[in-house]
């Protein structure tokens, strides 16, 4: 069984995002795992994070200002994999840093570092050739995004070639801003699950344990990002403690849906 | 529509929006359905004689087209004197500076707002650097009564106060963008962020021949009126096609608009002028073809200024309209195909050409256009006297007088 399959097998999973190079990333990742994160998304900083709201934009720029390079991100990933052999690790970011040395190079580095999956915000299925084939060749999952604007006619193309899980972006917008109405999430997840056999995780705008618990009742996973990134900003090098506490509160909310299911 | 032969240079992009390896649709999934819709609607509009008729009529009655093809006698004479004996072509200016709002930008804005209304969109957004595209967009939005928001880097808002006030007079809301370096690239990021959250009712009028497919194609098509007119005007004036076309390349819309109708005429040479800033051997320039390499940004694959990790580096040019770390994908492709030659011109060369044009022809050119004019010393020295060269004077320089005064150390 893959790490992804394992992580989603027990019931709804908590997926936690932080930006690589923002703060003490290794300790922050350990805090997320200790708090009960089931899947880790590690953001690759980019100078032009077009799909992100202010919190993650600033995290990108902080990481770059500290001199974070692509090689550092793969080092962080490699060491994470040594410390946490079973927790799925996803790299999330933008096309240019991922493809600049060629997709084969990137896929190879992911495989060597023990990265399980990749989310690339600005490569839709139409441009799959840019990255998808290289990742699949190396056994790294390409995790695609589905959104409220992804209609039934498009969905098969989005699902084709994707694996690991499907990330449902619950609002048309950028990270960290609005929160979608629960009703619309339920409807969308039902539609997505009917069309696919991979787990569906829901994110964008999720902050509180209450929200996370509500989503966990209908989806296979809950993704939280900006709220973590804000904790890193606020606490700097002493972020691990607050990160772990906050993760634990979300994990409890998400995992309680397992028992009640 | 003319039927293109399969090996025509004018038949690109291909069905998936690529010019060779360049172009494409590198956007978030949320935008993808809208981009596909836009393409469908654009295809339909192209087939619709009423759409074309309305576009042509507005260009004539609102923009003031056709713009003149002006034989520039004193500039011609000046460069003939400097050139080796028998060299120094006859120089023409394509006068886009005489358009309403003072640049070629309005051609594209007219086309896109007609598309927006056709698609039933009720709100307009745009990015702007110097404010020229912002002013042109605010102008067409006012003309058609649509609310309009212009995203502009906070630094540019500060540097370009007159244009900010123009936009406000025209009824636009100007949103200063405080992320990143607070210039054009960041304004484009912010416009994309706003668009993603408002796709249902908002149309994004992109200001140059770049961005996700079909923007590079449709902006080029709307701007091709420049080249189509030039062709007819030159045939009428000289009975033949020009030997060389010269245009400044920021995102590339005035250049591709001038070049595209001539791409299949091998006897017409074309030169695109990039902003060389302090020099392409420094880190302060905006010459993405000369100093960059292919990458993905703002929806398309194209040449970009970037480091070895694919992080985008800041551009620099004295001309705000050329101050962008990329360019439209069709130029990247024409560059690699060798059909168009791209040459960098520095800030100081552009400043010199700016003054020369004012003094010799009584025309104050935009600093962008001054980059094209600044290539004349090197280009004219190699061309025989009986050759014909056209410079695209893409805009007028009223907007630039403060920048030029400062660069020349003059206090106003
Ligand atoms: C007068 C003028 N020329 C040229 C440009 C550069 O844009 P493009 O390369 O799209 O023509 C601008 C952009 O603001 C402009 O205002």
TrEMBL record, chain A:
E.C. number(s) listed in UniProt: 4.2.1.20
Pfam families: Trp_syntA
Top-rank taxon: Bacteria
Residue positions of the active site: 41 (proton acceptor), 52 (proton acceptor)
CDD domains xrefs: Tryptophan_synthase_alpha
Pathway: Amino-acid biosynthesis; L-tryptophan biosynthesis; L-tryptophan from chorismate: step 5/5
Official protein name in the record: Tryptophan synthase alpha chain
Subunit relationships: Tetramer of two alpha and two beta chains.
A GO cellular component entry from the record: cytosol
Family under the similarity heading: Belongs to the TrpA family.
Catalytic activity: (1S,2R)-1-C-(indol-3-yl)glycerol 3-phosphate + L-serine = D-glyceraldehyde 3-phosphate + L-tryptophan + H2O
InterPro entries, per the entry: Aldolase_TIM, RibuloseP-bd_barrel, Trp_synthase_alpha_AS, Trp_synthase_suA
Cited function: The alpha subunit is responsible for the aldol cleavage of indoleglycerol phosphate to indole and glyceraldehyde 3-phosphate.
Keywords carried by this UniProt record: Amino-acid biosynthesis, Aromatic amino acid biosynthesis, Lyase, Tryptophan biosynthesis
From TrEMBL, chain B:
One annotated GO molecular function: tryptophan synthase activity
Record's keyword annotation contains Cell membrane: no
EC number: 4.2.1.20
One Pfam family recorded for the sequence: PALP
Gene3D superfamilies (alphabetical): 3.40.50.1100
GO cellular component terms given for this protein: cytoplasm
Entry-linked CDD domains: Trp-synth_B
Keywords: Amino-acid biosynthesis, Aromatic amino acid biosynthesis, Lyase, Pyridoxal phosphate, Tryptophan biosynthesis
Modified residues (N6-(pyridoxal phosphate)lysine): 105
Domain Tryptophan synthase beta chain-like PALP: residue ranges: 64-395
NCBIfam families: trpB
Subunit structure: Tetramer of two alpha and two beta chains.
Role summary: The beta subunit is responsible for the synthesis of L-tryptophan from indole and L-serine.
The protein's name in its UniProt record: Tryptophan synthase beta chain
Species, as recorded: Novosphingobium guangzhouense
